[in-house]
Amino acid sequence: MLLGPRPVYLDHNATTPVAREVRKAMEDVLAHSFGNPSSLHTHGRKARGLVESARASVAKLLGCSAQEVIFTSGGTEGNNAIVKGVFLDAMRRKGAPGHIVTSRIEHDSILGACRQVELLGGSVTYVPAGRDGMVRVSDVGAALRDDTVLVSVMHANNETGAMQPIADIAALAHAKGIAMHTDAVQSYGKVSTLVDELGCDFLTLTAHKLHGPKGAGALYVRTGKTFFPLISGGDQELGRRTGTEGVAQLVGLGVAAELATGRMKGEWARLWDVRKEFLAALRKVCPDVIVHEAPEGKQLPGTMSLAFPGQEGLALLAGLDCWEIGVSIGSACTADRVEPSHVMLGMGIDEREALSTIRMSMGTSTTLRDMRYVAEVFQKIIGHAPKGLSYLDPQHLDEPRITSPNTFLVDLRLPYERWKNPSIPVAREWNVLGFDKEIPNIPRDREVILMCGTGIMSYGAGYRLANKGHSNVKVVYGGYEAWRGRYPGLLERLRSR
């Protein structure tokens, strides 16, 4: 019997709560160690000692020397530094643009960097993954060319948790003299990332996925390997990533790495037990649920990619959120449609199944009791979306509808979005985070139309509103941008009245 709602956080792959020990160490640095690590006086030497101690802690989990660890601001910077840096370094040495091999299921920071490589004249091959989320070694091998300068394949996927055969891929690359990079943002601190076992030349990690702070990360660069620095203009990090180090952030990363060292093995086994019991309970509630997962042993236990045939992932996210359960979806709402996750499509999954998929990522704070509660909530929300909630095609939000006395229009965009593009004059400008406080003030005898920047945040608000009994709630599909695209001059005309 449900006694909720009560908060259950299941989005650890997006970010993790900062550990108490990490927070305390960072507060101590902020209070007592303000020196610049590059200064030669006592304050600076004290700060330098803290940075180097953190470097050693990070290196210990990688099984490398501290001199092979370069600090960055996080995973996105690290991935960009290696993809673009290795490409530019090779072009500088060889005088011609090279070729990169990566996969279709990589993080956006890899794919974005690869798109820039293509704009610079390079070429990129994107290999697919199977339905199990695994990249095939043979596909990577077939993609290698004489001008290939880098292979970049992530260690564990952020949406499915599938762990890729990095050592086998690295062996193929090295046999042809090609450098190997792996994005270990989701695996560092959860499973072994010993660089000699992986065989990688470069590795990316970040602090906020293992209970450290946002804004701190690191690169592993094997001795003798080079890349063209993304950020230059100083001698910090041996000139490979310049700029004054954020001492408190890096101390937080170091402490987070130390904590992870002691818990990895126990957490792996514990999360497998929780995962198995939860999935067994979920299948009783929803027998046709599809679990996108790799074979056991190649799967991070804390990551669950779940497709619910006939359901919308966005509706499930909103329903779970009503019970204070935080999950994520891979799809994104663009100017005119909901886009399925590129990871799902890269695995050969069709668009309909991709759009019915949600990701639940557990962490050190997730308990079996939490997941039993989540299974009970699924029983409440599957097939029971609130009546009165529907999408509104942007073309139907025309001038007569906007100005009708029967319309109650709410703009839920973020303040900076309204600063860039003003609201429709009759719209209430409400903060989406405080929307629930406004629900008692919303008239039940009018059509309520909600609009945000994309359609995602307003859908969640609309779900909660309809769940409270409002019988005529519309969410503008694609949000403000889709509406402006459909009626490019209407806003100006309404504002001039």
Q: Catalogue the unreliable spans.
A: none
Overall structural class, as computed from helix and strand content, comes to alpha/beta
Helical fraction equals 40-55%
Q: How many E-type strands?
A: 19
The total count of helices amounts to 18
In whole angstroms, the N-to-C terminal distance is 55 Å
The fraction of residues assigned to DSSP E strands is 15-25%
The CATH homologous superfamily of the largest domain is named: Type I PLP-dependent aspartate aminotransferase-like (Major domain)
From the alpha carbons, calculate the radius of gyration and give it in angstroms: 25 Å
Mean pLDDT: 94
If you had to describe this structure to a student in words, what would you say it looks like?
It is a single chain. With 497 residues, this protein is of the alpha/beta class. It has 3 domains: 20-259, Type I PLP-dependent aspartate aminotransferase-like (Major domain) (Aspartate Aminotransferase, domain 2), CATH 3.40.640.10; 264-381, Alpha-Beta Complex (Aspartate Aminotransferase, domain 1), CATH 3.90.1150; 389-495, Rhodanese-like domain (Oxidized Rhodanese, domain 1). Helices cover 40% and strands 15% of the residues. The protein has helices at 20-32, 42-62, 75-94, 108-119, 137-143, 166-175, 195-198, 247-285, 313-322, 342-346, 351-355, 368-381, 399-403, 415-420, 435-438, 456-467, 479-486, 490-495; strands at residues 8-9, 69-72, 99-103, 123-127, 148-152, 179-183, 202-206, 217-221, 290-292, 303-307, 325-326, 332-333, 338-339, 357-361, 389-392, 407-411, 428-429, 447-451, 473-476. It has a 7-stranded mixed β-sheet, with helices on both faces. Strands 15-19-18-16-17 form a 5-stranded parallel β-sheet. Strands 9-10-14 form a 3-stranded antiparallel β-sheet. The mean pLDDT is 94.
